[in-house]
Every structure is written in C-alpha cells, then in structure tokens.
Amino acid sequence: MKGYCSALCRDSIAYGVYFGTYSTLKSKIIGDQPNPSILKILLCGALTGEVFWITVYPIDLCKTKIQSDPFRGGKFTGLIPTAKEIYRLEGFKGFYRGYITCVCRTPFSSGFTFVTVETVMKLIGPLGATLE
Length: 132
What we know:
The structure is a single chain. α2 packs across α3. Helices cover 77% and strands 0% of the residues. It has a single domain, classed as Alpha/alpha barrel (Mitochondrial carrier fold), CATH 1.50.40.10. It is elongated and about 55 Å long. The longest helix has 33 residues. By secondary structure, the protein is mainly α. It is a multi-pass membrane protein. Keywords: Membrane, Mitochondrion, Repeat, Transmembrane, Transmembrane helix, Transport. This is Mitochondrial carrier protein.
C-alpha cells in the first residue's frame, strides 16, 4: 500500500477542486440552458482539468515518486520528506517536471469526460424520474 496516504491526500483535495470547478464553470458558461452545445461542455471540462492539475500536480508528483520507489530501501518515504527531497535536488521547478505533457492532454481527457457525463445524465434523466 505504498503511497496510499499520498494518494488519499491528493484525491481529497483534487476531486473537491475538480467537481467544484466544473460546477462553477458550468453555471457561469452554460447557466440554465436545457441543451447546451457540446463545445460549451468541452470548454467547461477542459478548463476544469487545467485547474485540477495546477492545484494538485506537485502532490501527484510526490505520490508517483513514492509509489515507484523500491519497496525496501527507497529514498522516498512519505509526502513531506519526498517534497523536501525534490526541492533540495531541483528547487521549485522540480515539482512541475512533466507538467507540460499533462497540461497538453488534460483538455481532451477532461473535456470528453464531462461531455460523456452530461450525455449519460441526459439519457438517464427520464429513467431516474420514473423510479421516484
């Protein structure tokens, strides 16, 4: 279960940011439109993904280093010691190693995730209403 606490810390922050950001952007960009365009949903999802990774990327990087370190004798033992080691070796920029790749793929993955979610919710909406 190496890295479990780091993953829990990341996810506790990340998904509050993720869904909170999407909800806020959706209300600002889409509002009460009953049939918003796919482009608006994509935009909300893409921006949500960017905010998500800006917020949690350093924690995710630490978590990944902990999880990929050898099980015995590894140098990354916890979130705080790992963060200190990254900063000692690479400075602040070390927390954003690989960030550009992540930021380039995120608009697509998050955008299409929310298009899928909104489409499924629209399809099951009538079904959910009949079950009440």
